[in-house]
Amino acid sequence: MAITYKKTVAMFADVVSIEEAEGLLQWALKHPQGKVNLAACTHLHAADLQVLLASRLPVSAWPRDAQLKAWLTSALQDSKETTHG
Amino acid sequence: MTPILQQFIAESRDFLQNISRKLLNLENAPDDVELMSDLFRSVHTLKGNSGLFEFPEMSRVLHAAEDLMSVVRDDRLAYSQDLADRLFDAMDFVSLLLDEIEATGQSAATHAPASVQIADTLRRLIPVAATEEASAPSPAGDHTAATEGSIAAAVTALLESIPAAQIAAWREESQSGATFFAILYAPEPDCFFKGEDPFFQARQTPDLVWQAVASTAAADALAALDPYRCTLRFSLVSRAPRAALDAHFRYVPEQILITPLATAEWSPPPAPSQSTAPRAVTSGVAEEILRTQLAILALPNEVDWLKGRLLGVARTIAAALTSMGRSALIADLGAARDAAVAQGAAAPLHSWLAGKLEPASAPPVAQSKAAADSEAKAVRRAEEGNSPKTLKVDQDKIDRLMNLIGEMVVAKNSLPFLAGRAETVFGARELSREIKSQYAVISRIAMEMQDTIMQVRMLPVSFVFQRFPRLVRDISRKLGKEVNLVLEGENTEADKNIIESLADPLIHIVRNSLDHGIESPEVRRAAGKPAEGRLVIRAIQEADRVLIDISDDGKGIDPAVIKRKAYENGVIDEAALDRITDQEAVNLIFAAGLSTAEVVSDLSGRGVGMDVVRAAVNQVNGTVTVESTPGAGTRIRLSLPLSMAVTNVMVIESDKQIYGVPMDAVLETVRVPRANIRSIKNRQTTVLRNRLMPLRSLNELLANSAPQAANEDDELAMLVMQIHGEQIGIMVDDFREVIDIILKPMSGILASLSTYAGSALLGDGSVLMVLNPKELVTWQ
To answer: What's the pTM value of the predicted model, to 2 decimals?
Structure first.
């Protein structure tokens, strides 16, 4: 399982496939206060990415993979700013 | 290059030619439904074929052409001149790709933008109403339809989101010749269902220096979000060369947009002459400037301020190029400028600029260079036409050529007769010698011609072999056996007729091997063999024959079983049952009406098969032999002539008649003293080199009561022949020369005379009957 759902945190690990998108969306709907931990994630499918973009769940830990981190910080931080602003 | 690719190229050229011809015909008869359907089919097939290979550009254009054609075929769009022009363009493009594939074995990704453009032009012809109904609606993404203005806006928006420090760094770098490309990537909504991961694709973009991703989905509608409809939009900046980016996105070119980031957009133009110009100079204006510079360079050199003028022009050109996003050319320009200054003449700079301006005079979009190149090539193609390296010739023509060379071989055979007559009848010995020397020359040329024509008719055995992998796979699946098929010597060549005649016998043999030979995996394992059976089909050339071995490592043929079956089926009688050797028993599989399979299956076992094999092989003058070791496997060997055009026969005489005997059946010729011929049980025999040799008299075989004539020393002429693997002596009256003849099979009523293989015309005009030794002896 590439995403482990804890009480308030969704832990991403390794490569998160397209199969996770639906589950992630459901979890995001049920846990509006949830957070995502991307530390161990190396890649996530575009479908998962757009769920993250749409849900605007705060990121508790950024990926250790530098390239992925660069991608996600630009995309997810921006959307977070729009939430607050 | 693989044979299948070569075949694809040859076939595609045919299709293209066909399509062109039909398009031209359609111009005269635009309402011809039949013609239109034909055209559609050709394009459809061509598209399908291209899909077998990795040529996305070709498939894309053909796919668009097919869509367009299907709309026309369904009467939803009328045929028009414009439509024909577009289709011609598309086909020229495909032809261009084919040239490249033929030259390099692959199609370069640089054609992707051009292919999108062509596919787009084709699709634009499809009426909107039709597009909705068409099976494949136009996949053109939002960006393709975007106007240049919105592209500029998107690029500006992208630039605004990038920190100023980052842009400053790029600016510095671009001054030293680097070019940055902005890439807008809008994956199509249902791309996930095609197995694509746009995010991965974007991450893998070569030399990525900046990235951003956004979603076009409504911001507050998380519950309504369909996670499987892609709404992502990627904005990327890369410093990779254009070609690399095209290659990276070659499967989705209609979803991306690549624009060079002109340095003008973040820095004032460096040249003073440009300082008053607006910041973003359109390519059109820049080109105008370049043309003016060209005119200045064409002015006379004889002025004092030439050097200053050259430097000024060079600086202006550099500025114009930069604003056109082609700053990569600046280093080149510097070299041309230095050369011009050194020579004190404008010529180097002038020719450099003229060379650069020409291709750029087409549409001023940055992509235009590649498109213009291919356009120029396309125009040239229409002029020069295709010049394929292979010719397709009707087989009848080749056959006629072969008959003619055959006649020629026969005609040249009359020259020795003529020489003989010149000497004996007219006493002109000198003339006779000259005729003979001329004969040698003609003979040599005729031989070479004959060889060449044979070569034309040669086909590799792979022509027949290629169907076996599939056949073996299907049959072994059906039988629940595991078989490893090994094909060897596929490049061995033989005459087309021979190769074609091989197909059926080979299929029979292979089926038999699979059905009767190779055992099921359990039986094999129990016998200590690997579960997977091995079937080898090997072709080798040996002198003037092709040998085809089909060997398996199955259970082999049990002579005892064959004997019993043969007896049960009435193939042999009781006496023969005890008498025949194991090898003879194995050979009985070729007898008609024998099947060893306990159950008649739809594969084999109906008692036809091996006798059909032998008949088919005999037909082309071949032989078939079988060797088998019970428990270890069977090997069936077909031996076929390389060519059946010219037959080498020995002329013999019997009862004042001459006959021909095929040389490949003759082992040797001996003269046997009449005293050495003994009768055993009413059969004549002799002893040749300590071996008992059965004898037959040719007259007797032909139902002629005349006795064989002996020579002055009372010796009888004996042909030792190999018939069905046995040696037999045929007594004749005399031997004559060995000649090459064109064997014409017996036709009409005479065709039933199986004792004759055919007839041939001799050099002196007489007819030679050629015997068929196999039939002659078994007929007894």
So the answer is: 0.44
